[in-house]
């Protein structure tokens, strides 16, 4: 049985390898180059999954029109400027 950490590492490696394969196949094709690689890099997939988890957690705090709550993003990565697009919020993050 693989641990979740090993599964994530394997998923990232597989995505990166597939992306490299797509890039090299595109270069080898007649006319070479093109619009860009098809697929998602391992790092981009990881950020996407993290953003999905954070957004889902935020959605559980406020579920109805009259609900209220506090959402505290207590992680050093949320202080980075600019925020990755996946974590872009329509309101400021107070530090």
Task: Give short descriptive properties of this protein.
95 residues; 47% helix; 2 helices; mainly alpha
Description:
The protein is mostly helical and 95 residues long. It has one domain (4-87). It has two helices and no strands. Helix 1 (4-28) packs across helix 2.
Short account of what is shown:
This protein has about 100 residues and is mostly helical.
- Radius of gyration based on Cα positions: 19 Å
**Which series of helices and strands comes N to C?**
HH
The helix/strand class is: mainly alpha
Q: What is the chains' assembly state?
A: single chain
List unreliable stretches of 5+ residues. Answer: none
How many structurally independent domains? 1
> What form results from the Cα inertia axes?
elongated
Beta content: under 5%
SS field, number of helical segments: 2
| Biggest beta sheet summary | none
Instruction: Give the % helix.
Output: 40-55%
| Separation, N- and C-terminal Cα atoms | 41 Å
Topology, number of strands: 0
What's the rounded overall pLDDT mean?
75
């Amino acid at each position: 049985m693989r641990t979740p950490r090993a599964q994530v590492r394997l998923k990232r490696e597989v995505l990166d390898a597939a992306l490299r394969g797509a890039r090299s196949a595109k270069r080898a094709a007649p006319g070479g180059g093109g619009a860009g690689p098809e697929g998602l890099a391992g790092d981009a997939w990881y950020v996407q999954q993290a953003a999905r988890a954070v957004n889902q957690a935020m959605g559980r705090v406020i579920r109805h029109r009259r609900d209220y709550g506090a959402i505290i993003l207590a992680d050093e990565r949320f202080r980075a400027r600019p925020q990755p697009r996946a974590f872009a919020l329509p309101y400021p993050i107070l530090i």
